[in-house]
Amino acid sequence: MPFCHRWRLFSAVFRGTNIFRNLFQSEIGSISSDIKILQDKSLDMGLKLKNRNVWFLLGKFCILEDSAVILILMEAVMVVKERHPVLFIVVYLFIS
Predict the structure, then answer these.
(1) Residue 64: is its pLDDT beyond 60?
(2) Helices (DSSP H) in 2-84: which residue ranges?
(3) For 3-60, how does the pLDDT look when each residue is reduced to its tens digit (9 = 90+)?
(4) In this structure, what are the phi and psi dihedrals at residue 65, rounded to the nearest 5 degrees?
(5) How deeply is 53 buried, as exposed, middle or buried, from its count of CB atoms within 10 A (0-12, 13-18, 19+)?
(6) What's the CA gap between 34 and 91, in Å, rounded?
(7) Domains in the chain, number
(8) N or C, which terminus of the chain has less Cβ within 10 Å?
(9) Which domain holds residue 18?
(10) Torsion, Cα of 77, 80, 86, 89 (10° steps)
(11) Of the candidates 13, 14, 92, which has an alpha carbon nearest to the alpha carbon of residue 53?
């Protein structure tokens, strides 16, 4: 096979692999953005679950109408949950 035919064949194969590589990189980018979206949704759902647990605990103690007091109590419950998880579980089980 003459050199020019081999060169054309090599060029065609090389172009094909470049096209495949570009498509693959595009798919990887798409998958990466999908993973980022799922991570953001997961974090959001985790926060909503924490807030739901806090609201449940607050509802066991009293009915509050002042939103500032509710926010302060929510923050206090979250601090106790993070710093003293055993105490949080004991209190949770006690009021459940």
Answers:
(1) no
(2) 3-61, 67-83
(3) 777 788 888 888 888 888 888 888 888 888 888 899 988 888 877 777 677 666 666 6
(4) -115, -20
(5) middle
(6) 39
(7) 1
(8) N
(9) 3-95
(10) 0
(11) 92
